[in-house]
Amino acid sequence: MNVFIKIWYNFLDAFVKFKDFKGRSNKYEFWSYITVDGLVKIALAFLVTVAVPFVFVAVIYAILTIIPTIAAVTRRVHDAGRSGWWVLAAVSGLLTKIPALPEGILVLFSFIAIISVLYVLVLTLCPSDKDNKYGPTPACTKEEGLFGNLLIFVSLALPLTFATYSAKMNQMAAESLRQNINISEQVTPHATPQAEPLATSASAPQNSAQ
After folding, report:
1. For the stretch 69-97, what's the b/e string if a residue is b when 16 or more beta carbons lie within 10 angstroms of its beta carbon?
2. Which of 13, 28, 45, 187 could form a disulfide with 148 if both were Cys (CB 3.0 to 4.6 A apart)?
3. What is the average pLDDT value for the chain, to the nearest integer?
4. 3-state DSSP call for residue 85?
5. What is the pLDDT of residues 132-158, one digit of tens each?
6. More confident: 104 or 75
7. pLDDT score recorded for residue 192
8. In Å, how far from its chain's centre is CA 151?
9. Is there a contact between 86 and 77 (Cβ–Cβ < 8 Å)?
10. d(CA 128, CA 80)
11. What is the pTM of this model?
């Protein structure tokens, strides 16, 4: 199978394997899913700015990818020879959204989540381990290995590129709004002072009496 076609196959296969938290995934398989998922989310982000109904589509897609993403990360960590519990530790950062927890507990969960996320990210970049308790080493051709490394670069560059583009667009929108405000202020005529009718009417009887 062509490596480009297999990228899309790996993306769809991640949804099929959404219940597999015990197997392994090599770098090419994992980063194929992450790259396509990132492209889809960026495309939906653009479409949301065009038509409001795409907000619903974007939300549904984000919900549908939660479990497959966690499962894919777990298999990639297994492939690097580490326990999938590290992924759970990384997800523990979500507990910081619970306002009822004491401040000390929230700080602890935040610290654990940050360390775990960084460690899991490093593990997803590691090469496949030899046969381990999670299964045999996944088959990977030399060409797939090279594309796996290329997909890592693309996946990490996507958020930076999108953030830069969004910041530029926001800057242009703010500048356009500022120019429109200046133009409207120049076009709007200044109000002319009105004469005081009371003073004029009061002086009228005096002139007629003279």
Report:
1. bbbbbbbbbbbbebebebbebbbbbeebe
2. 28
3. 84
4. helix
5. 999 999 998 888 999 899 999 998 888
6. 75
7. 52
8. 18
9. yes
10. 5
11. 0.76
Q: How far apart are CA 182 and CA 109, in angstroms?
A: 49
- In this predicted model, what pLDDT tens digit does every residue of 57-77 receive, in sequence order? 999 999 999 999 999 999 999
What does the chain come to in residues?
A: 210
**What distance in Å separates the CA atoms of residue 48 and residue 37, rounded to the nearest whole number?**
16
Q: Are 28 and 140 in contact (CB under 8 A)?
A: yes
What percent of the residues of the chain are helix, what percent strand, and what percent coil, each to the nearest 5? 75, 0, 25
CB hemisphere CA count around 180 (13 angstroms): 6
Terminal CA-to-CA distance of the chain, rounded, Å?
111
User: Looking at the predicted structure, is the pLDDT value of residue 210 above 50?
Assistant: no
Per-residue CA distances from 53 to 46, 60, 72, 120 (Å)? 12, 11, 29, 35
Beta bridge partners of 126: none
C-alpha to C-alpha distance for 42 and 94, rounded to whole angstroms: 23
Helical H segments across 66-141, by residue range: 66-79, 85-91, 103-125
